[in-house]
Amino acid sequence: MTQHTRSEPLATSRPLHQLPRNVWAVTFTSLLTDISSEMVFHLLPLFLANVLGVRTGVIGLIEGVAETTASLLKVFSGWFSDKLGKRKWLAVFGYAISAVSKPFLALAASWSAVLAVRFADRVGKGVRNPPRDALVADSVDEHHRGLAFGVHRAGDTLGALIGILIALLVVWFTQAGALTLAPQTFRTVVLISIIPAVLAVVTLSAVAHDVPVSDQRTAPRLALRGFDLRFQRFLAVVVLFTLGNSADAFLVLRAQERGLSVLGVLGMLATFALVYALISGPAGALSDRVGRRRLIAVGWLAYGLLYLGFALAEAAWQIWVLYGLYGIYYGTVEGTARAYIADIVQETQRGTAYGLFNAAVGLAALPASLIAGLLWQGVGAWVGLGPRAPFFFGSGLALLALILFVLWVPRRAAGGG
To answer: Does residue 240 sit in helix, strand or coil?
Structure first.
């Protein structure tokens, strides 16, 4: 998350090789996990649509349940790791859940089986992420946290790119040029993904060590009482934006619908990952210079225009170009909302504020993807409005959220504070 990308002036004075062992353990664990996850889950919507023949409404349900599960668990797992006084083994447990569940995708013959695996994987993500991030933060002093989280972010990004490239190679050797995904290709990718997933669990278990937990968070309270009006209204606007921010699985399906082969889809995803990797580092301090409020506004405008482009695109290459530009949006804006929250709430309220934010985004993620799927192919006898509809919807809500953010969310605290 980009709230960690800012660093103090001293952060670059410490050589990388002097970072604590925990930072490198977590970084390599995340790299290996992302290799495993990205090579499988980007192909999952194609497996559901091409192999199992399910409609986009079901794909939306699966993706929505997955993202909602991860977001809601994050609300409580950080507090729980404080309560236990342990970071490492809760994080290991989360990684292990994902590693154990993923191989079952090779056996999945129904969408309900895919849903069960996706749910278990996101449970693992929701359990592991907060204690993992806390383990990194607890292992370095405040002057080097920016560097530590920057290294971890780089590992995430590199792992994503490697995972997509491995999947691309498998598709190249098994079904190059094919428009639809073959079941054996998907199962081969799943089986290969088991190796980095297991290595990730082993790495964190063997290399990382727990550090003392000095501060105990209070249990999360999901109540808006006592918060600044800016935060309350911003949260409402974020929910509106999220309702139009459906899972990226629909972008993959849109690319295929426009004629992009499975190999082309993976090439498009690799382009996105590369652009994101190149942009996210230099853009890390951008919000400090231009202001987070302005960056959120520009980002939502860009999102609205990109989704309008996805709706209007006629050719596969246009989807590819738009998805590359989408990487610029992600690398520049992703996580800025979290940093903005830190600016508009009191320090003592931040834990509760982030709990509310995760809960709100998580609860909105399910209807967002479900609505997108229903708009595309409908349900029952209703055939939906077609593949353009989810993107018109997402674009419209993003632009409406932008207008409300600019005109309705106060710039300053009540009383001019």
So the answer is: helix
pLDDT of residue 272: 94
DSSP readout, 31-76? HHHHHHHHHHHTTHHHIIIIIS---HHHHHHHHHHHHHHHHHHHHH
Question: Please, which residues have CB within 8 angstroms of residue 299's CB and are 6 or more apart in sequence?
Answer: 329, 332, 333, 336
**Which pLDDT score, from 0 to 100, does residue 216 have?**
60
Q: What's at 251, amino acid-wise?
A: L
Mean pLDDT of 269-291: 79
Q: Which amino acid is at 17?
A: H
CA distance between the termini of the chain: 27
Q: Which residues contact 321 (CB under 8 A, 6 or more apart)?
A: none
Backbone angles phi, psi at 14, to 5 degrees: -95, 120
Cα–Cα dist 262/309, whole Å: 21
Q: Where are the beta strands (DSSP E) in 94-158?
A: none
Answer yes or no: is pLDDT of 45 > 50. yes
Q: Closest by alpha carbon to 330, among 289, 273, 285?
A: 273
Give the separation between CA 130 and CA 4, rounded to whole angstroms.
13
Closest CA to 88 of 153, 20, 145: 20
Query: Which residues 6+ apart lie within 8 Å of 356 measured at CB?
Result: 222, 224, 235
Residues 285-341 have pLDDT tens digits of 676 677 888 889 999 999 999 999 999 999 999 999 999 999 888 877 776 787 788
Euclidean distance between CA atoms 115 and 108, whole angstroms: 10
Spatial separation of the C-alpha atoms in residues 147 and 25, rounded to whole Å: 15
| 104 contacts: CB under 8 Å, gap ≥ 6 | 113, 116, 117
Contacts of 362 (CB under 8 A, 6+ apart): 67, 68, 69, 70, 71, 72, 74, 75
Which residue, 102, 176, 40, is CA-closest to 48?
40
Q: Where are the alpha helices (DSSP H) in 244-291?
A: 249-257, 262-280, 286-290
